[in-house]
Amino acid sequence: MDYPNDQAPGAPIRSGIPEHGRIPKYYAVKAHVSLLLDELGEGGLLPTERDLALRYEVSRETVRQALRELLLEGRLRRQGRGTVVAGPKLEQPLSLASYTEGVRRQGRTPGRHLIGLERFPCPAALAAEIEVEQGEPVWHMERVLLADDERVGLESTYVTVARLPLLEEEFDPDSSFYAYLVERHGISFGDADERIETVLATPREALLIGTPPALPMLLLHRLSRDSHGLPLERVRTLFRGDRFSFSTRLNGTR
Q: Which end of the chain has fewer surrounding CB within 10 Å, N or C?
């Protein structure tokens, strides 16, 4: 197999072109538009579908299909009535570091918008996870995650009222919950179980995040424990698949 001299290690082999060389028209257009995006740079305004169809001598539907894939991949984003080149995806580390720390490391400004903070009797399934009696009061906090005022995710946090009885009065919902636990209550994080899957947002979630329901999402489930091994928080976070990637470092066993 021949490899292009400029083949990036993370790129599709042979740019995704089959050995027989026959590729769908939309994919060829997508490859051309990808090069155009590099020329335009972040925030650059993409030509209209009509202009692109004329430039590449294809139908507007072919252009539309190519642009749909680039939108889903996070290379493009809608802005007003036009389409512009999107910035790089946010890279969130798979660690006990907070969302705030991960976003700040990339030069972006993290933020949150509170949807609701309420207490309710703990249902059986959640009680089993966080090791409390069914019916014990728990807090549920739901917040939209922001990066430079762009909506990028939706987070649900569950924690027992017994652990944080004054959460509603003490905590600023626009700030880091992780920092609140550490700095205000001196709670040290021990470890966590984490699972990631791909899902589609529900109509309600898509409305809150401001995305189409068909946009793939990355759903992260986390159960955190404190330094004594006691369950601390149960978190369900939905991240936009076009704006996020995750990274971690793997160590060999000894």
A: C
